[in-house]
Amino acid sequence: MSTEDIAASLWQACVDQLAQELSEQQFNTWIKPLSAQVADDLSRITIFVANRFKLDWIRAQYAARIADMAGNLSGQPVIIELAITPRETPVRMAPVMPAVSEPDVLREVPGAASAPEEPAGGLKNRLNAQLTFDTLVEGSANRMARAAAMHVAGTPGHLYNPLFIYGGVGLGKTHLMHAVGNKLLADRADAKVLYIHAEQFVSDVVKAYQRKTFDEFKERYHSLDLLLIDDVQFFANKDRTQEEFFNAFEALLAKKSHIVMTSDTYPKGLTDIHERLVSRFDSGLTVAIEPPELEMRVAILINKALVEGAEMPEEVAFFVAKNVRSNVRELEGALRKILAYSRFNQKEISIQLAREALRDLLSIQNRQISVENIQKTVADYYKIKVADMYSKKRPASIARPRQIAMYLAKELTQKSLPEIGELFGGRDHTTVLHAVRKISGERQQLTELNQQLHVLEQTLKG
Ligand SMILES: Nc1ncnc2c1ncn2[C@@H]1O[C@H](COP(=O)(O)OP(=O)(O)OP(=O)(O)O)[C@@H](O)[C@H]1O
């Protein structure tokens, strides 16, 4: 690899790491638009920023973190410089450190992150062209949601309106929404499509309220053919927003425009959202996206590595997929670490390399998820005694949590069925297998059980 390539990958690795650490909105607003120049000896990174406001913000919020990351990756101190990219005049340099926060710059309030960039007419569709059906790997975890989304993209305004997609973090809900928008635009370039995060909708309502521009607001939202709105759980407790969303919702449905929504929970699980809205959310089709199963995780890793121009042997993908189970965003993070580690050390991708690159992540997991921990957490959750996990008692109030704990032990640890059986009071491996099959089958059917398992998984993963 040339010195230039190594320098460029140092910046890319920092960007990748920030993508993992920040919310998507923060990342897209502040980090994605940056460009940078890295000195050949990796001692200095000059980051180019569009204007003074952004420069101050990046300096206060991110410069120190970037310096840390770059230092860790390159193994030497790295100085971060910020410069405004001029339209006509030459680049002006600004000193960077120390990275102290500047209270007068901007406070983190919902929607504030994107406030400076708000387009006047607001007619940008905000779609990310990379997020298409082609790049979304299909598996049993997302099959139904994907099929419904495809249908909507092909014939919007008909079946499944609204389409409500829910699931845990990083499982591809946002991706799927963008895919719907991109497909519709590919078929009908003149379609009016808007992707918006619920927080941004809240801040649009606040702005319309402050500036008395509700007519424009209505004109903008009520004229859409397709509204894609992400993370509607953020509407909780925002009465005015809920009212405006209700109006937009009714107007759009009346003119047969389509609405696709996502949330971290199913409609009835939403809290502090008016009943009339919740019942409308549930009036089309509600589908879940589950955490991807092993084969799907393997396929995602191999595909994403290819997109990055790298080849990930199947056994390595399997090793990573076995160990990184929670969601696709974490899988992507693990992949980035492995690719960066392989580039910096100029080594081929192997299981050994993956183990080294993911050292921190693997040790945290091993520390946190043990069968004992699962038994205790599940017992606490269902309010039974931990001892009941090993006892021979069979009433349903005990047997079911025990089966759930067995299922989670299989899902979240590396233990074999006989080992799990042993840890549950010396039960036979067929008993464990029965529990695993039963719970995983019911999970597909029963929303409430699925929701409980989500909570338990999130709790155990810390
Ligand atoms: N099935 C998949 N195939 C390929 N990439 C995927 C898949 N599912 C998710 N991803 C990728 O994983 C990352 C996280 O997905 P996404 O942002 O859509 O998650 P999300 O469910 O909206 O999460 P959050 O609730 O945190 O916003 C994205 O980069 C997305 O492209």
From TrEMBL:
Q: Where in the cell is it found?
A: Cytoplasm
Domain AAA+ ATPase as annotated: residue spans: 159-293
Q: Where is this region: Domain III, AAA+ region?
A: 126-342
Checking Gene3D superfamilies in the record gives:
1.10.1750.10, 1.10.8.60, 3.30.300.180, P-loop containing nucleotide triphosphate hydrolases (3.40.50.300)
Claim: Cytoplasm is one of the keywords in the record: yes
Q: What keywords are assigned to this protein?
A: ATP-binding, Cytoplasm, DNA replication, DNA-binding, Lipid-binding, Nucleotide-binding
Q: What is its main location?
A: cytoplasm
Q: Name one GO molecular function term.
A: DNA replication origin binding
HAMAP family listed in its UniProt record:
DnaA_bact
Q: What is known of its domains?
A: Domain I is involved in oligomerization and binding regulators, domain II is flexibile and of varying length in different bacteria, domain III forms the AAA+ region, while domain IV binds dsDNA.
Q: Which PANTHER family match?
A: CHROMOSOMAL REPLICATION INITIATOR PROTEIN DNAA
Q: What name goes with this protein?
A: Chromosomal replication initiator protein DnaA
Give the species this sequence originates from.
Xenophilus arseniciresistens
